[in-house]
Amino acid sequence: MKLTSWVFEDGGMIPSKYTCDDINVSPPLRWEAAPAGSKSFALICDDPDAPVGTWVHWVIFNIPSHVPELPENIPPDKTLKNGAVQGKNDFRKLGYGGPCPPGGTHRYYFKLYALDMELNLPSGILKVDLLGAMRNHILAECQLMGKYKRVR
Predict the structure, then answer these.
(1) Measured distance CA(86)–CA(117) in Å, rounded
(2) pLDDT per residue over 8-51, tens digit each?
(3) How many domains are there within the chain?
C-alpha cells in the first residue's frame, strides 16, 4: 500500500495552510494498492517530536474500503457522509488538528491501516482505543511523513 498527498512529498514540508499558522484544514491524502479483503481503513496522524511525548493530530476510522482518498478540509464531524468516524485528537477536539510545534522542526506521520473489518467504536475515541481495536485486524499499513517548522 502507498499513501501520498499532492500538497507535500514524503519527508517534505507541509504547507502552512494545513497548520495552526493558517486555516488549519486537513491535507488531501490518497492511497493505492490496498490488499484484497480490506473492509475499511483507519488513519492516525501524530507527532513524535512533541515535548510532552507523541502528540495526536487526527484519528479517523471506518473509512469505506471503496474510498481511495480523503479530500482536503475534512469537516470535524463525528461521522462523515461516507460513513467514516472521527476520534479525538490531543487538542481535545474531533477531527484534524494541524501542526503547531512550539519550536523547531517536527515530523508528522500520517499512518494508514487497511483492516479486515469495520470497527464498532463510537466517535470521539482516542488513538489508544483505536490501536487496541485494530489489533489482529491490520492487513497492511503505510505512512506518509511531512515536516513543519513555524515561522515567527
Answers:
(1) 17
(2) 999 999 999 999 999 999 999 999 999 999 999 999 999 999 99
(3) 1
Question: CA 21, CA 1: separation in Å to the nearest integer?
Answer: 31
Q: Which residue has the cell 523547531?
A: 104
Whole-number Å distance between alpha carbons of 30 and 42: 13
Residue ranges of alpha helices (H) inside 11-141 are 127-134
- Other CB atoms within a 10 A radius of the CB of residue 111 amount to 16
All cell numbers assigned to 121: 467504536
Write out pLDDT tens, residues 82-128: 999 999 999 999 999 999 999 999 999 999 999 999 999 999 999 99
CATH code of residue 6 = 3.90.280.10
Q: What gap in Å lies between CA 94 and CA 34, rounded to an integer?
A: 26
Length of the chain equals: 152
| Contacts of 92 by beta carbon, 8 Å cutoff, 6+ apart | none
| pTM score | 0.97
For residue 120, the enclosing domain spans: 2-149
